[in-house]
Amino acid sequence: MTKRTTGNRSDRPKPAGKHASQPNKHQESQQDTDISERDSVAIKPNSTTARLKELESRLTDKLPIDTQRINDMKNAIANGEYEVDAKRIANKMIDFESSLKK
What we know:
The chain is mostly helical. The chain has a domain at about 45-100. It is built from four helices and no strands. The longest helix has 19 residues, at about 25-45. It is elongated and about 80 Å long. The N and C termini lie far apart (about 85 Å).
């Protein structure tokens, strides 16, 4: 019994030698296109990321920052002069938790 070939290249044995594993020009071009498309997709931020960055920027611009108060607190902590009012903190935490349940 002899083996018939149908003309489909996948049925044929691959040639041996130095040219056997080298891709043809079309395969190289396709690989380059696939790589460049993948790289361009990785570089572009998606719309959600861009929107979040925009919102973050807008919020940062709107929030008032009392740098003097921050510096005063840093100095008090560094000097051991900052006193913690545990009852006040506990009450604030309870108020916050209560506001979330509403």
